[in-house]
Amino acid sequence: MELLKQMCEVHAPAGEELAMKEFLLNYINENQNSWKVKPILHHGAGFQDNLMLVFGEPRTAIFAHLDSIGFTVKYNNEIVKIGGPVTTEDIVLVGEDSQGKIEGKIIKNEDGIFIDFNRTIDRGTSLTFKVDFRDTDEFIQSCYMDNRLGVWNALEVAKSLENGIIVFSTWEEHGGGSVGYLGKFIQEKYGVNQALISDITWVTEGVKHGKGCAISLRDSGIPRKSYINKVVAIAKKSGINFQLEVEDAGGSDGNGLQKSDYPWDWCFVGAPEDNVHSPDEKVHKDDIKAMVALYSELMEKL
Description:
CATH architecture of the largest domain: 3-Layer(aba) Sandwich
Strand order of the largest sheet: 1-2-12-3-13-17-15-16
Largest sheet: 8 strands, mixed
CATH class of the largest domain: Alpha Beta
Distance between the termini: 28 Å
Structural class: alpha+beta
Number of strands: 19
Shape: globular
Low-confidence stretches: none
Helix content: 25-40%
Mean pLDDT: 98
Number of domains: 2
Number of helices: 7
CATH topology of the largest domain: Aminopeptidase
């Protein structure tokens, strides 16, 4: 879990994914020679802070978003949300501006939400939860398991992937916006039009810790049923533990693909977590193992 810990510590809220992209490029350059297939990399001009890996003759694309939730400093140390983070008082936030490093607790009053810090922070500075990474026998717990765990899963799958595309996308936590043009590039260059969304979902009354990776039948978006049926059929034959999820809220890069001008089939497949969008996101290790195994199976069979 050391790689996952390192990724959770990268400061990359929505809009500032560059640091996470550079971390991944370094990791890929150091490790790709040991992978089964060495991928073609697409990034740079026209891709903003996104990164795409293409293996062999792809049929399916994995989308995993790089960004996290966080906060932006407004005026007089007031903070506004990036995405939907919890804002409980005394949560510790960290960041850095032109004057140095920042660490302070969330405080609230009748005027709004603030960071308690001993000087005025530069306007526009981003802040994220302070990382407390906990690795126990059964669980991993840290802020930003959503979606550093989804990214980690894609990197694990990459080791043995022969045919497929892995997309590391941006802005997902604050409304998306990148997967439309990434999907356009993929369809026009590679003819791929089916996707898996490597992201983290919720522990709920119907999705529990330790029962396997969740396959989402729907959330705020409704994917095409015939494609979902294929995914579920492969999962059933694999013998890998999985759970079926049905929700009426929440979203992912899949929603962005569905709203784009290109015909995409997509399915959200991810481990469930507790304490969503907090410093204490918690995922069962058995569900992490099931997620990697199921993705490897799906990328081979879809």
